[in-house]
Specification:
globular; mainly alpha
């Protein structure tokens, strides 16, 4: 355990693996959330049924614990490595000129990660906690009405803006993180390097646009 805590290479590998798992989860979560864009009558019953399935399926519940662990480990490793890097570089770290050789988002992965993590805490509190432990009404099929809860939150402009900012931060985090994670775990080769980078950019853009469309569409639709 002590060896793991002090071994930066091991922690970087674990952060890369947990990051890739979380990236895969983003695809699954987006696919489920896109149901919110269906016609209201269909979306409500289908989304609530989908949420009930996720909350009651033993396999999904087991995977959810892996998800929680990945979020905690990914965050803890990022904080540890950032602190260690700052100590190693000393005072010159904040005055370096890496901008000449790197993108701004790759130099601010920690800040982007903090924005995403804070949003996750809010997100879990507003949806996961209230769905699990709150007193939500039931829809006509007897499932907890998470759909209406989501609709009400996305009718509020401040919440939509908060959501969009967090997703943009996530997009930039993915823009560097996906490619970096593949390189960290050793999937780096001159022949495949460009392909992985392009696919990483496409993934980050699709995820960002996909998640942003949902609250913006719902908000605009409810204003008409």
């Amino acid at each position: 355990m002590i060896w793991y805590i002090k071994n930066s290479v091991t922690r970087k590998n674990l952060m890369a693996i947990t990051g890739l798992f979380l990236s895969f989860f983003l695809i699954i979560h987006l696919a489920g959330n896109l149901q919110l864009l269906l016609p209201e009558a269909t979306a409500k019953l289908q989304y609530n049924s989908y949420s009930q399935f996720l909350g009651g399926n033993p396999l999904v519940i087991a995977i959810s614990f892996v998800l929680y662990a990945c979020i905690i480990l990914h965050t803890a490793d990022a904080i540890y490595l950032a602190i260690k890097r700052r100590k190693a570089n000393g005072a010159t770290y904040s005055r370096d000129r890496r901008g000449r050789a790197s993108t701004w988002y790759s130099r601010h992965m920690m800040a982007l990660g903090v924005i995403v993590f804070v949003f996750l805490v809010i997100h879990f509190k507003d949806y996961w906690y209230r769905y699990k432990f709150g007193d939500l009404p039931l829809d006509e099929n007897g499932n907890r009405d998470l759909y209406t809860l989501v609709m009400v939150s996305f009718e509020q402009l401040w919440y939509v803006i908060l959501y969009v900012i967090a997703i943009i931060a996530l997009g930039y985090h993915l823009l560097h993180g996906v490619f970096s994670a593949h390189r960290t775990i050793g999937l780096y080769h001159p022949v495949y390097n460009t392909i992985i980078k392009v696919l990483g950019i496409i993934f980050a853009v699709v995820i960002t646009i996909g998640y942003i469309i949902i609250p913006v569409f719902i908000y605009i639709n409810h204003q008409l």
